[in-house]
Amino acid sequence: MTTQHPSKDPGDTSAYCDPATIDSQVCTAKRIERQAEVSKEGREKTDPKREQFKAAKEAYTAAFNAATADVDAANDKLDKVRKDIGCRLSDESKHCLREAWDKVKDEIEACGTKPGCREFDCTFDDTVGDDETQASLAGRIQAFRQRAGELGAYFDTLIERQTSLRQQATQARQAVETLASDNAADTTGKDALRLYARAIVLRWTLRGVFGGFPTVQSYLDCLCRTLTCQLEAWAAIVTLEGAMAERKCKDDAEQERCDELKANPVEVLLDRYDKDCAHCDPKPKDKEYGAADTAAEA
Length: 298
Known about the structure:
With 298 residues, the protein is mainly α. The chain has helices at residues 19-86, 91-111, 134-185, 192-207, 216-263, 265-276, 291-297. The longest helix is centred in the first third of the chain and has 68 residues, at 19-86.
């Protein structure tokens, strides 16, 4: 029996609703729902960092000023101690020690992160092509999530500098005080070479206290860029997570349609007849059923 829309002509195929339209609307809703979920996840990770960034200028300025006072005092004292120790060594010995230090210093710096602001790739392509698959979307999402995590961890490291900066400056100043005491105790000069080596390394240590951020503003700029990059990562993740939810919904609907076709081809055929052949009169006319129809059915 053909089901007809009461307000449409039976011959008008637009009278029938396409279930695919419903599936599309459902899948669009899935995308929006998933985007809302992931957006909330991203806010939970980044909102605390926004607050930390707002408080960073005052906190880091205080740490920077205190560290500067310690480093300046330590440098002044180190200049005097190093000159005193140097008087007990030959120029040739001091020159050779400094050359050796240049090589050791390069090796040490090659082992760790370079000073200054760490650079990240902040390009996050959130475009979704028609041929995009769940697998390709999942791969991009995973890569972006990993980068967002790295950015968040680096931001936390920068925030920790508000505490560690003072500690490093204090420790460096104490190391200079210890060197001065050890130098005063070395009345015979037998430890002059070791003491001079310690002085050379301490000079490098003092220069590294600020971690490549010579001003408060250079630190704040790095903090700002890192947070901005992380927010851009989450914006792309939200878009792609929504696209993947929508793609999964559409793939599931297509699989369901295929399963229905395979499981009930007769019912699907009759439904299609009701939709496409509503204008047909199922009653045969005289001599209408002939050899051509038999061949077509075969």
